[in-house]
């Protein structure tokens, strides 16, 4: 059975005991299950035999305080599952991270979970406490910055200059940390930048080397500019393209646009938080733009054609049907914000019926005549009828 299979095993579940069970409780649970599934009591039953093996294996781990402690530590690191003592391990756990993550030493492959977990666990764990001698590349830091766009720029996209400060290789010493450009390999970590720290089992954890601060190199003659760190503060201005359709507060990731790496390592990423200003006419709802258009009473009552402005384009004409109520929303298709697939949302046009403040004598006479013509109508009749029903 592979190491991965053992990691996925829950020995507490096998014995049916809680994780804080006492030694006595574990022993009692094991004896009960062992009697039930013992091969002598289940002759010819392959499933019972396999179950008995699991029970014995679980008791071997949880029944030994030292092995149980190591098992609990491993479960805390990997979530669920534990490690099985390998042959001749002397009670310590002998596991192979290559087997665990799918690219074991025997295969020479790079399968499994790929570079992401390999990078994390390759630096965190060290089998048997051994370290390599190659100075490892170091990825550059990620950078966070902000940019403010106008409403139109957010909808259409924009290229903006961003001035950023980050750590970069020191120009005075070419990133070596030594003013003569000849640092030496750290004797403490042998150039790895990490030192092993035992955890009480057959595996060890690693910490940044205290002597070289994780660089793997020591400057005999420290550079005056970077004090031997090989890194110095650097400012640069970049032209960054903000895609069309971004929203206020959106965080955009630009791969490889962060701080430069060390010793050939890749650059970090740049994260840009976008702030969008307001527009005096248009608003936004998801991928749609919104606008409120005032109309006259006669346009709403009799119908007609209404010209509506669009963002950055020519106006569109919408047909207002007779009897259009105040607050009705109509749609101008394809006049909204840009979507991720390149298509556009719509422009949502809300009608606002305007009541004039001042009326001329002729207009007042016309409205008086209209009131007389509709004197028998009561728009609130249904409202009162509904109120009675409650």
Secondary-structure blueprint of this entry?
Elements: H1 3-7, H2 11-15, H3 23-37, H4 46-62, H5 65-78, H6 97-100, H7 115-124, E1 125-127, E2 143-149, H8 151-156, E3 158-169, E4 184-185, E5 194-198, E6 203-208, E7 217-218, E8 231-242, E9 251-254, E10 270-276, E11 283-285, E12 288-295, H9 297-302, E13 304-310, E14 313-320, E15 329-332, E16 347-353, H10 361-373, H11 381-389
Parallel strand pairs: 2-10, 12-16
Antiparallel strand pairs: 1-6, 3-8, 4-7, 5-6, 9-10, 11-12, 13-14, 15-16
Helix pairs in contact: 3-4
Please characterize this protein's 3D structure.
- This protein is of the alpha+beta class and about 400 residues long.
- About 25% of the residues lie in helices and about 25% in strands.
- It has helices at about 5, 10-15, 25-35, 45-60, 65-80, 95-100, 115-125, 150-155, 295-300, 360-375, 380-390; strands spanning about 125, 145-150, 160-170, 185, 195-200, 205-210, 215-220, 230-240, 250-255, 270-275, 285, 290-295, 305-310, 315-320, 330, 345-355.
- The protein has a four-stranded mixed beta sheet. A three-stranded antiparallel beta sheet has the order 1-6-5. Strands 2-10-9 form a three-stranded mixed beta sheet.
- Helix 3 packs antiparallel against helix 4 (about 45-60).
- It is flat, with a radius of gyration of 37 Å.
**H and E string:** HHHHHHHEEHEEEEEEEEEEHEEEEHH
* Main pleated sheet: 4 strands, mixed
Note the beta-strand portion: 15-25%
Determine the number of helices (DSSP H or I, runs of at least 4 residues).
Answer: 11
Query: First CA to last CA: what distance?
Result: 72 Å
**Spans of 5+ residues with little confidence (pLDDT < 50)?**
1-6, 79-134
Task: Calculate Rg over CA atoms.
Answer: 37 Å
- Secondary-structure-based class equals alpha+beta
Q: How much helicity do the residues have? A: 25-40%
Number of strands: 16
Mean pLDDT value: 78
Q: Taking strands numbered 1, 2, ... along the chain, how are they ordered across the largest sheet?
A: 11-12-16-15
Shape: flat
């Amino acid at each position: 059975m592979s190491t991965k299979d053992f990691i996925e095993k829950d020995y507490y579940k096998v014995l049916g005991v809680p994780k804080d069970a006492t030694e006595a409780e574990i022993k009692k649970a094991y004896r009960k299950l062992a009697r039930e599934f013992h091969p002598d009591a289940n002759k010819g039953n392959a499933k019972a035999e396999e179950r008995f093996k699991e029970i014995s294996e679980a008791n071997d781990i949880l029944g030994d305080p030292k092995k149980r402690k190591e098992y609990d530590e491993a479960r805390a690191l990997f979530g669920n599952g534990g490690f099985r003592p390998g042959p001749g391990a002397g009670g310590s756990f002998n596991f192979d991270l290559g087997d665990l993550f799918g690219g074991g030493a025997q295969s020479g492959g790079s399968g499994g979970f790929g570079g992401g977990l390999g990078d994390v666990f390759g630096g965190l764990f060290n089998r048997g406490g051994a370290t390599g001698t190659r100075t490892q590349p170091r990825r550059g830091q990620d950078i966070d910055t902000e940019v403010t766009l106008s409403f139109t720029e957010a909808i259409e996209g924009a290229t903006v200059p961003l001035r950023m400060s980050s750590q970069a290789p020191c120009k005075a010493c070419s990133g070596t940390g030594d003013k003569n450009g000849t640092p030496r390999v750290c004797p403490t970590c042998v150039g790895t930048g990490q030192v092993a720290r035992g955890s009480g089992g057959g595996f060890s954890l690693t910490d940044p080397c205290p002597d070289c601060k994780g660089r793997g190199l020591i400057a005999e003659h420290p550079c005056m500019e970077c004090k031997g760190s090989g890194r110095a503060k650097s400012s640069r201005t970049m032209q960054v393209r903000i895609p069309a359709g971004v929203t206020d507060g959106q965080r955009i990731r630009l791969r490889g646009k962060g701080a430069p790496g060390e010793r050939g390592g890749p650059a970090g990423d740049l994260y840009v938080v976008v702030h969008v200003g307001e527009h005096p006419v248009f608003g936004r709802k998801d991928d749609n733009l919104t606008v409120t258009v005032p109309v006259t009473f006669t346009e709403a009552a009799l119908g007609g054609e209404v010209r509506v402005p669009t963002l950055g384009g020519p106006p569109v004409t919408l047909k207002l049907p007779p009897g259009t109520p105040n607050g009705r929303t109509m749609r101008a298709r394809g006049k909204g914000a840009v979507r991720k697939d390149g298509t556009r949302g719509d422009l949502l046009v809300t009608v606002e019926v305007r009541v004039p403040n001042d009326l001329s004598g002729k207009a007042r006479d016309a409205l008086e005549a209209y009131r007389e013509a509709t004197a028998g109508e009561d728009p609130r009749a249904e409202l009162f009828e509904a109120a009675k029903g409650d």
